[in-house]
Each structure stands twice: as structure tokens, then as C-alpha cells.
Amino acid sequence: MSRKRLEGFTRFEKYEDALSRLLTQVSVAIESEMVPVTDAAGRVAAEDTYSLRDYPPVDRAALDGYAVKSLDVLSASPSNPVILRLVGSVEAGEIPKFTVNVGEAAIVFTGATMPEGSDAVIPFEEAVRKESYVYVLRPAQKYKNVSRAGEDIKKGDLIIKRGLTVRPWHVAALIEAGITEIKVFKKPRVGIVNVGNELLAGGGGKIPNSTGPLIHAYLKELGCEPVLIGVVPDDVEEISSTVSRVLRDFDILVMTGGTSVGGKDLVPEALSRVKSASLIFHGVNLRPGRTAGAYLIEGKPVLMFSGLPVAALVGLEAFVKPLIRKLMGAAPLPEPTVRVRVRRRVANVVGFKSFFRVVVYRENNELFMEPLRLSGSGIISTLLKGNAILVVDENIEGYDEDDYVNVILIGPIYEKRPEFLDQEASTSS
Amino acid sequence: MSRKRLEGFTRFEKYEDALSRLLTQVSVAIESEMVPVTDAAGRVAAEDTYSLRDYPPVDRAALDGYAVKSLDVLSASPSNPVILRLVGSVEAGEIPKFTVNVGEAAIVFTGATMPEGSDAVIPFEEAVRKESYVYVLRPAQKYKNVSRAGEDIKKGDLIIKRGLTVRPWHVAALIEAGITEIKVFKKPRVGIVNVGNELLAGGGGKIPNSTGPLIHAYLKELGCEPVLIGVVPDDVEEISSTVSRVLRDFDILVMTGGTSVGGKDLVPEALSRVKSASLIFHGVNLRPGRTAGAYLIEGKPVLMFSGLPVAALVGLEAFVKPLIRKLMGAAPLPEPTVRVRVRRRVANVVGFKSFFRVVVYRENNELFMEPLRLSGSGIISTLLKGNAILVVDENIEGYDEDDYVNVILIGPIYEKRPEFLDQEASTSS
Predict the structure, then answer these.
(1) Chain B interface, best mutation among A63, A128, A214, by max B CB count within 10 A
(2) Distance (Å, rounded) from C-alpha A114 to C-alpha A10?
(3) A333 and chain B in contact, CB less than 8 A
(4) Which CATH fold topology does A60-147 show?
(5) What is the pLDDT of residue B62?
(6) CATH 3.20.20.70 fits B337-428, yes or no
(7) At A22, which helix (H) or strand (E)?
């Protein structure tokens, strides 16, 4: 079968070129909003946010002990203790109302504001108290056991960069920095339109719409606000009018199905009829997912993916995730990857960037990987049994037994080789 | 300073022992509920869930072409095509109302139900149509280009295991499996009580409660339903009565502060006074976080952590995350780790399991790591500059330059060595 004629495509564009054109041509402005810092976790910062103050605000005791003048205790030793007079005590949260002068000390508890005049804390263990005097047994350098004002955060320090997702430690740091509200991106609104008579048929030929809810769940995980607009029949007019009607309500539209039905390319045909539509790409060297495409309509991206769930998922990973990141100025987040030893050959179709669903398991304290053989783009069960994805670039023929490769984990690692791999091997050989 | 007397502790228990006792002694039953599959993404499955049906429900065409009897086309070749009579056409979603008999074929589109009698699909490209006849140029084995009924999911197949978080592909598979509702765990209710006069003081010594919102954000990320109960003063009676009053509303309580204030161990003292309270552990060999502890009260775990944000975060990672996982029967999820080359020595205090905040950056296409020097448990900024955590076991003295270690990424990797590392080195050497 000639690759050139597959599903009516004359060629499959290189994925990286298609993505680069998508990212260059699309520049939807995602709106932003102010939210209280305590509600901001999980949202994406819309601007660089800087500290309004020093933190800690004052010098504080870092442990329980005696606040002293470091110069007073320079020579202290167990055989020659320095004797200081206790002039007070400070608990955390109190404002000391006295000063520590030469020859004096004060009891301080962890977190307490250091009394004026003191510049070091002698731990309780390194001194002996006798009534209102304390015998210091060890010296302490200036600022020993003192949390300095501003040592954690200084006024003007960058707390969170635009594009970063607010994590728990950002929340704490923003509060310490004196910030109560932060500007975050509104969640991008993504509309999902599923095209296909088979999703509508009443007469028994109907199949359930599983790809729509899959996309919905994926976009929610990604921090978007997805809406399932509904199922539209295989009809160019209806598809065009649906897109024209709903586009204004969304930042991005995702269409599934009709990308190569009956060789008619229903969805591209329908999109091309919408006013001001321009094609960004259609047909990429991805497996699965080669029928993916995108139009730009009224400045907004309309993505088209196969109606088959695994192909649609690859389309989301390959195009929608980088697009959302770019619109929010976000750096790629770390993904859970592991290095594994190949147990059974993985053969790629050269020219295609392929997403293999694979199984990672532990054996003799080493991580092994086997690909799942039955791997059509309709076979969702490969993502249930499989717990990792191996991405193979288009110029790689595959990987041999005992090669080492990196895979992206999507589920827990099996603690031994799962038995279903035997069935796998036998049913499809 | 003797380790034994630190903050009044006589010893720091081995972390693994403390955790193991916590997990053994606590067996709170987290409630479950039925939710629509389309709302289940991100929730944790509360029982093994199996398919109610085969999927696909019928044999379907895997591409556009001609449905044939494979025996008819065994000898087909371009020089000797097999001529078949077209008897109909089936679109996706249609129920074929005819049968393919010997010598016959039918047009089928991707996803269409295979007409009775047919068992293979010849792609359009491998045949030539002439009016109501088709000239087949290539043979096809039985079931070639046919998605077999049940090839993806069989009735009784496991779709999702108890304890797994529902991901987008589970949603799609559950729908295909005929499941509309799934039993998931209710989000564990975790109450947060922050103890400390310094968080309440009106007179200027007040510091903001950043640890409470940090814990709140962390627990939300973890899939819990956290509630900030409020700040309680350093008063044993008030702490005890707060715990007694609120415990019934939560599955777990997290207390911060007062774990070693003034050597008085306020929170442990207060918890020990609550009826039926029994100590699980107090004092562990974690750095930061060694003042962590837990009581069991009325069968529920009450965890105690330092009020300092980084120490509290280590407590959450070390105890609360594994506890929640255990209560939901969840396997550890993959974390984003990378292998990095040590650029500056990391020195551990032997005997302690330490959590170093480190910086990972790329240089000459290799990943390097440097620890942040200023690393007290109050220094939240180490989690802003640092983008990874290095966990060093208690029997390891540290890592030397050019050693390779695995670190857990908590933020994007720096594309070059950040300049602040120079300041780091100079301010604290």
C-alpha cells in the first residue's frame, strides 16, 4: 500500500514543522484575573510576581535558648563560663520591651523576635541557669542561631514567574511576601465537537461517544475549562454552521472524526467553507494520529483529530498541550520518565514519529519494557494494560532487545512481568 | 551539641519504622460514592471495575474499502484480478440490511459494521471499480482490515483497579465497557490546626500563617478535601479542646507548631490529654522535619509537624501522602525524576534522612545539580529557586562532585546555570 495515498493524503508533513506553524500562527490572548493567593494553587501565574517586603520581617531566634551579645561570649568555655544577667524572656509572637546590654542575656523561644542589643542565641544545652544568671559554656558567632530579617525573601525578589503553575510552596512564599492576590490566567475555554453519524444513529449501529469525554477529561487535567458541545452528523453544512456558531464562545476548538471519512475529508472541507478560515496543516507523520490537522479561523485555532480515542489522545499531547503552554508562556513541566531495558523488539515505520504503548515492570531489581502488540488507534485497552509511552522518532527503525530507552510513565510500574504479556505475544504472532 | 538533647528529644526514631507503625495502626475507612463516569476523572477508584460488554460490539471496517469474503480473493493479483459484484454500501453508524454472498462485495467506510457474510476489507487503493463491479488486485487474509468485536475490551475485563486515579483513557474505556457510574473514594477530609501565639499576636510580633495555606494547597493537590480550622494559641487546654471538638468532622487531623516550643512539646502534651489518645511516634530522623509525630485518637490519625513551612512539607510528603495512599489502596504513582551529575558536594548529617533542595540545570547537553546552601526549614525560598529534591538516606555521608544521583523534579529544568548560584556560594561560604 502506497503511503502517499493513505486515506487520501498526498503527504504527511513532519510533525515538528506542523507544530511550529501552529505555534507561530496562533496568538489567542488568554484572559487573566486576580484571585486570592489562598485560592491560587493549581492556576497558572499570568505575570512575574515580586515580593512586597523582607521576610522574616525581623531577626528571630532560630531555636530555644539565651539571646546574648556575641562579643560578650567570645571566650566562653565549660572551664571558664561567661556569666550573664537575665533581663527578660520573649515568646514567639511577643514584642520584646527591653534591651540586652553588655553583660546581659534574655530567654528566647523559637521564632521569637530578638531583643534589641542581642545578636546570637546560645542553646539551652550550652548554658547553665542559676536563678537570674546564666553561665554560658560555649562561644557563639554573630547571628549564630538567628534567622536574619530578609534572609528568606527580600523585597523585590521574584516569587513566581509568569507561566508557572502555582504550587503549595508558592502559596506560602506569596503570603510571606505580603501578597494577598495574584494575577492568574483564566482557564482556557476549549470547545469539543464530535462529528460522526455512528455516534448519533438510533437504529442499532450506534457506538458510544468515548472520545468526547476522553478529550474533556484530558483538557481538565491540563487546566482548561472544556465544554462538550455535542455530536454533529457527517454533514458539511451542519459542521460549518456549528463551528461558526460556537467559535466566539471559546479560545480553542477541538473537532474529532470526519478527518478522512470516505476519503471525503468532511471536517477540513467544512472548516474551509467558514469565512476567513486558513489551513495551518493537515496530515502529519504521527502514528497513531496522522490525520490530525488545524485551521485558523477568526484568529482562533480549530484542531481536527481522528475520532478514534488513542489517535485523538496523541493529537492532544502533540498539539494541544504545547499550544496551551505557549499561550500561557509556560515552560514544559517535568514528566515522569524512567530508563528501561527493552525486552522485546519495537519496530517503527520509518518516516513516522510513533507513540508505542508499552508495559514497564521490575524483574531482579531492573526495569524492563515490552511493547503491546495489538496497538490500533481504536484500542483503548492498550492504555489500561500499558503503563508507559515510548516515543520513537521518525528516523529510528526501532529498538532491539537489551537496548536502553526512556519512556514516559502513565501509571504505576508492575512489580513483576504481568501474565497478559504472554497472551499478547501468542494472540498476535 | 548532643543530638540526643536536641529540642528535648531523647532519640530520633528511624523514619521507616515510624511510617510503618503509622500505616499499621491507622485504618480509617474512607467513604466511597457513585459518580457518573464523565465526572470521575481525577478521582480514585474505590473498587475493581470490570467491563459489562464486548467492545467493539460488532466487527467493523478498520478503513475505507470493499467488504469481501476472504476466500473469494485468495488468488487476486494486478495481472489476474478477482471480479466481484457490488451489492451495497455501509456508512459508519448504519446497520447493513444485506448479506455479502460468494462473488459479491460491498463498499464500507471506516467504522462501519461489516455486512453479514464478509470477513475482510480491501482498501480502495487495492481495487478498481467499474460501475457495479469491483476488480480486486490483492488478496486479503480473513479479518484483514477488520476491527473484531471484542478485540479491544471483553466482557469481564478489568477496566480500572481499586486505588488508581481515573485518567482520561479510563473514562473512554469505561464508556466503551458500558459503565455509566463508578464507585470512587470520597475525598479524605483533612482538618488543619495551626498552633502558635506568633500567628495570633495583635501587637506587631505577629507573623503570617503561611504554613496553613501551604498544607491546604498540598492536600488539595493530593486529592483531599482540606479545611483550615484556624489558629490556636500556645495553650494545652485550648489545643486539647479544639482537637476533641473537631475530630469527628475529619478523617485525619494535621497540627503544626508547638511540637517543641520552649522544650514544652505543647501539642504532644495536649494530644496526650485527649481521651483514648495513644502515641504512634514522635521525633524521627528526618531533616528537616525531625519534630514530626502522630497520635491515634478515636481510631483517627492526628499528625504533628513543625510550624516551619519546609519542615511541614517534608512531614506531608513523608507521612501524609503514604497514609492517604494506603487508606485508598493506591499504588505509588510515578514521580518525575531525572538522573543528574553532582556539581558541588552534598554533605549529609549521618543518621538523618535528608531532603535537600537542589538546582538542576542543563550545560553542554548534560544535566547538572547543585544544592542550595541556605537550607533551614523556615527558608521557603529554597523551593522557589530550587527545582528538585534530593533525598539522601541516613547511612549516606553525601555525594561528591561528578557522582550521579536521581532527584525528584518539582519545577522546570533551568536551560543554563542560574546566576543566583554564584551568590549562593559566596554568601554562605
Answers:
(1) A214
(2) 76
(3) yes
(4) Molybdopterin biosynthesis moeA protein; domain 3 (2.170.190)
(5) 86
(6) no
(7) helix A15-25
